[in-house]
Amino acid sequence: MPGPLSGIKIVDLTSVVMGPYATQIFGDMGADVIKVESPEGDIMRHMGVGRSETMGPIHLSVNRNKRSLMLDLRMPAAREALLRVLTDADVFVHAMRPAAIERLGLDYPQIKEVNPGIVYCGAYGFGKGGPYAEDPAYDDMIQGVSGLCALNAHLAGEPRFTPTIIGDKVAGLTIAYSILGALFHKVRSGEGQSIEVPMFESLASFMLIEHLWERAFDPEHGSVGYPRVLSQLRKPHRTKDGYLCVLPYTDKNWQDFFTLADRADLAADPRYSTANNRSRNYETLYKVLGDIMAERTSGEWLSQLRPLSIPVAPVNSLEDLFSDPHLAAVGMFFQKTHPSEGVLTQVRPPVNFAKTPSEVRRLAPRLGEHSREVLAAAGMSDSEIAALAAAGATC
């Protein structure tokens, strides 16, 4: 059964993780994603040790369900070939800085000339209207400028990066839902449009959902930063034999927890009786919570808290995920044989569609693996493709 985006053609001129993550989501949902790469290939092909050159593990993780078209866009003939591929595309997404994409002659006004109905997405580090627009941007820079590194200083005593490329992935998800919104508009109206998705603004918006806090009011009557999640005591709690994540949340959760702990004094304490009161007393509340959790083993707490619907979970390592019983039951991991890389472990798409399921139809492509196939489908003759290859513009 075809996925929800079956029949949609997406031309992907992105690299690293932000853009490829977004376009892999489309590929998993059935879109025909054509990954356009330079002769050197996406830099993620070279990160980590693979079984063969240019097939690194992160490339394998974010470029499945795509076809690779190698074009040296510094050459005019390669640009003309890309324009032919774009003629019947539904979406074009790139991750180049504004001046660079204009130099290549691939900005929105020029693409619109060959395909007026295209959805054109520019994924940038910073929005074109601001002073940072031409600055290079990777996840580290975006974590820093967005305030995320400074938040980690509350816990680590100095600014720290979060140990996942959250800026790339938040921006990738933003690209995905933005393009889907534009495609929905196109279905209703027939109109294409241009979209700008900047990493900085995407992560700043993401961060300020909770951390705008009392600065939401004008005039200001408080500070930024959600106190509960900034507390140094908000952490997995030590038990007698390990660690657990536990979060009594509702009034009933807390009353049940205090009863289970045989702490009638805390159940009657007005500081902890309502959500508003607890929000003013997180430091003492989390200290109490940590002290109580240390009194019993992890197994005891899990067996006692779960029947009361008090949120609790173990602290998994990355390795533990591969044996987690829930992930095993839902089939989160699967193996498939790659034509050149052998057996690979992959993570399935997390969303389940009842009528149009996602599917991994092909694993990540070798560099330029589908160049001739894609160019031929765009109407180029064998002699034209051979001439491009002879000039080094494709392979």
Question: Would you write up a description of this structure?
Answer:
This protein is an alpha/beta fold and 395 residues long. It folds into two domains: 9-206 and 359-390, 3-Layer(aba) Sandwich (Rossmann fold), CATH 3.40.50.10540; 237-314, formyl-coa transferase, domain 3, CATH 3.30.1540. The protein is built from 18 helices and eleven strands. The protein has helices at residues 18-28, 57-62, 76-86, 98-103, 108-114, 139-145, 148-156, 166-189, 199-211, 227-230, 251-260, 264-267, 275-279, 282-293, 298-305, 325-329, 371-377, 382-390; strands at residues 9-13, 32-37, 66-70, 91-94, 119-124, 193-198, 237-238, 243-246, 312-314, 333-338, 342-347. Strands 3-2-1-4-5-6 form a six-stranded parallel sheet, sandwiched between helices. The longest helix has 24 residues, at 166-189. The model has no long low-confidence stretch (mean pLDDT 97).
